[in-house]
Write a structure and sequence with these properties.
This protein has 428 residues and is mainly alpha-helical. The protein is 71% helix and 6% strand. Strand 1 and strand 2 form a beta hairpin.
Length: 428
């Protein structure tokens, strides 16, 4: 029998602490659960914290496959707002606050209720209160969070489960908060970088549409009355303008239908696979996607290994975080070969998924027993490469868009000025 010191929440929500004797950690957790006590910290008396034992962590990533999000991000899928009306940054702030409260030995239900009381988003406040209520009635935090997969992904839930079973939930929540904050930082940098090119493109499209549908039809009707024949550029622009001005309702419906149809197709397995394959083959964009996938793969795997998750289930979790189905399928092959006893570096090297330098660093980490630290370094290197490639792409994209918009507007100006010049010569 061994003794375990715990800090926990009772079913009533009040905090408690003490020492329990059991054969092992799982027996201690089971015994405490039978008493209606749910620990946030469980440490062997006179020994290392529970997180130092890999036997419990190996069972951690048992979250159901249905929890895997489409986007591959650690918090949830898609966009600025999550499907439930909760912002990504709100989930990040929640993770950081919960980590701090658990570090202060506040029981989980009371910590959740305290966060909910200060939450300004009603939708998120209701979800946090629901999770707190489920924890009070005896459910684990990971199970309660797994009921909200749009907010808490498979990766998130699995890491929380690791912290619960290893008795190191405050540390694991702190790692999760770091991961989410870093992901938000990278996302913000990319968004800021593409804002100007998107503004140029949007402004150019709106300008051209207004000219074609509102301004030019009136001007060309005047020019046709004054001139018998119009220059070729003017005739081309006249036909295009007439087509847009007469059929713009149908064109608008067709454009909206095409957008929704494309979105629906890309959500299907075949459409998503075709898109991810196409993106990897686009010059510059393909390299950007691979760098993003590698940095996310390395950072996420580093956090999981550091938290005590064994390599094979960690790879299964990481598959859903890389953000590209083609690369995810290659990582699945790596996981299968790792199941046979191979190291992580060997199948990565054979399949050629990532650069040779990154594979060498991973191999060195395995040999030295510091795989998590080496994966973190790989992630840092690839994130620097990602930033550099993003800046290169944006520096090329902005002038290209300006040239395209300028060329279209310039053609329209020439088409308008040519008949005016012809009329001025006729007057003289």
């Amino acid at each position: 029998m061994a003794a375990f010191r715990y800090q926990a929440a009772q079913a009533s929500g009040s905090g408690t602490q003490g020492v329990v004797e059991a054969e092992d950690r799982r027996s201690a957790l089971r015994l405490l659960a039978e008493r209606g006590v749910f620990p946030s910290v469980l440490e062997a008396v006179g020994g290392a914290p529970a997180s130092a034992k890999p036997s419990t962590a190996a069972k951690a990533p048992s979250a159901p496959a249905a929890l895997v999000p489409n986007s591959g991000t650690p918090a949830a899928s898609g966009g600025i707002r999550l499907g439930s009306g909760v912002r990504r940054k709100e989930v990040t702030a929640f993770s950081r606050e919960l980590s701090a409260l658990l570090e202060a030995a506040i029981p989980i239900p009371q910590a959740l209720e305290g966060i909910a009381a200060e939450e300004s988003n009603p939708a998120f406040r209701e979800i946090i209160e629901t999770i707190a209520g489920e924890v009070k009635t005896g459910h684990s935090l990971s199970v309660a969070m797994s009921r909200h997969p749009r907010l808490f992904s498979s990766l998130y839930v699995s890491m929380v489960q690791v912290g619960e079973e290893a008795g190191a939930l405050p540390r694991v929540m702190n790692d999760l908060a770091d991961l989410l904050e870093h992901d938000d930082e990278v996302r913000s940098e990319v968004t800021s970088a593409i804002a100007y090119p998107l503004f140029v493109l949007g402004f150019g499209i709106i300008t051209v549409i207004v000219l074609l549908t509102v301004v030019l039809p009136k001007l060309f009707s005047m020019l046709e009355e004054m001139l018998d024949t119009l220059p070729l550029p003017t005739l081309i622009l006249l036909r295009v303008s007439g087509f847009f001005s007469h059929y713009w309702p149908f064109l608008l419906v067709a454009a909206v239908g095409a957008v929704f149809g494309l979105r629906y197709f890309l959500k299907t397995p075949r459409g998503a696979w075709m898109w991810d394959t196409f993106v990897l083959q686009v010059p510059l964009m393909g390299a950007l996607v691979r760098s993003s996938a590698l940095s996310r793969f390395a950072r996420t795997l580093s956090i999981l290994v550091k938290s005590g998750v064994s390599l094979l289930p960690a790879l299964k979790i990481v598959e859903s975080t890389v953000g590209n189905l083609v690369i995810a399928s290659q990582i699945a092959q790596v996981a299968e070969e790792t199941r046979g006893g191979d190291s992580l570096a060997a199948p990565l090297r054979k399949l050629g998924i990532f650069p040779r330098s990154a594979v060498q660093m991973i191999s060195a980490g395995e040999e030295s027993g510091q795989l998590d630290d080496m994966l973190a370094k790989v992630a840092q290197i690839e994130e620097r490469h990602l930033r550099a490639k993003t800046k290169t792409l944006i520096s090329l994209l902005a002038p290209i868009l300006i040239l395209i918009v300028g060329g279209v507007v310039g053609f329209m100006v020439i088409a308008i000025l040519l008949p005016i010049f012809r009329m001025s010569r006729g007057i003289h």
